[in-house]
Amino acid sequence: MIGRNELCPCGSGKKYKKCCLQKNKLIEVTKNKKLYAKGLYENIEHKINEYARKEIFTKEMNRCKDEFYISNDINFKIDKLFNTYFIHDFITSNNNRLINLFIEENQFTLNKIQKNVLQGIVKSYIGLFSIEQVGITKSIIRDCFTHEDIIIEDIDLFNNFKSGENIIARVVNIQGMTILVDYCIGLSDKNLYVIVDNIKSIYKEQGKGFKTIKEFLINNSNLIYQFTQQILLNDASYIVRPLNINNEVKDRKEKDSQKEDSIDICGILKDNIEEKYLQESMDLWKSFIDVRKSIKGSENGWAAAIEYYIKKDAGETITQVEISKKYEISPRTLGKRYKELRAS
């Protein structure tokens, strides 16, 4: 360990405390944050993987393999990517994702941190990124489709990459820290051009049901995975082949935003409503989101409306003002959400 008053090992000639001490402390804090975030991710990922091994999902996994793999060649990295695709992105025959089925089945046993981690995973996506800046504790990558800049605090990740290079990666926000999971795969400028141009053409031709190209890619991530496999199965000089523009694109847009809201609302109800009303409240919310095309509004507003709905039906003497105060919303908001519940 370097003493505060010793010469800094960087060779500046200054004392350590006046040179690199604070920088190294910041690096250590960032590393610990990253280890904590990755630990949370890996813990919940393990649970979902165990869930996905259930016999009831065997047929779905086989169907997913047929859809995903472009070659029979054995490749450990591709197998790992398949696993992520299967549990996060693959749309099952009942028009759902395994991660959402896991959330629904475990909503009463998940703690608050686990729910937050799952929210981050549900919102995650695989994409193409250019590395704009590599810093000491933070780096900036840019989404090549949306041109959005994303701050990454995974400081060890870019040891093998530098500013100006391109990567294929999966971005996940865990407890406020954005990290990249699975593998970061290098991408030449030539391959980046081919992939972006090809996917934009497919989106223009077959993406009319999607509001943005990002939404299109989240629902059709297998397009990027197919390009990724081409790269992993060949050497660095390989130029990827464009996908067939008539390739079948999924138009079964799943209610991801509703599922994300469902995580929050279930947690809010669990923390606020009496045990005797909890299951009925959960059932009401589930039946409501199953028939709605879109859901807007704050989680507290919906949770308050559900409690008011259930208690009013149970014959309790309860006012909207009472419930509104409890959930820190206005009576007007509660009344509006209550009417929507009643109308469904």
Care to describe what's here?
- This protein is an alpha+beta fold and 344 residues long.
- It contains 13 helices and five strands.
- The protein has helices at 21-52, 58-68, 76-89, 98-106, 112-122, 189-206, 213-219, 222-232, 256-272, 275-291, 299-313, 320-327, 331-343, and strands at residues 125-134, 139-143, 149-152, 166-174, 177-187.
- The protein has a five-stranded antiparallel beta sheet with strand order 3-2-1-4-5.
Summarize the SSE layout with pairings:
Blueprint: H1 21-52, H2 58-68, H3 76-89, H4 98-106, H5 112-122, E1 125-134, E2 139-143, E3 149-152, E4 166-174, E5 177-187, H6 189-206, H7 213-219, H8 222-232, H9 256-272, H10 275-291, H11 299-313, H12 320-327, H13 331-343
Antiparallel strand pairs: 1-2, 1-4, 2-3, 4-5
Helix pairs in contact: 3-8, 5-9, 9-10, 9-11, 10-11, 11-12, 11-13, 12-13
| Number of contiguous helices | 13
Oligomeric state of the chains present here = single chain
Percent in strands: 5-15%
> Low-confidence parts, pLDDT < 50 over ≥5 residues?
252-260
Q: Cα-atom Rg, whole angstroms? A: 24 Å
Roughly what is the average pLDDT, rounded to an integer?
A: 87
Helix content: 40-55%
For the biggest sheet, the summary is:
5 strands, antiparallel
Order of helices and strands: HHHHHEEEEEHHHHHHHH
Largest sheet, spatial ordering of strands? 3-2-1-4-5
End-to-end Cα distance, whole Å, is 65 Å
What is the β-strand count?
Answer: 5
Q: Could you say which structural class the secondary elements and strand pairing correspond to?
A: alpha+beta
Overall shape: it is globular
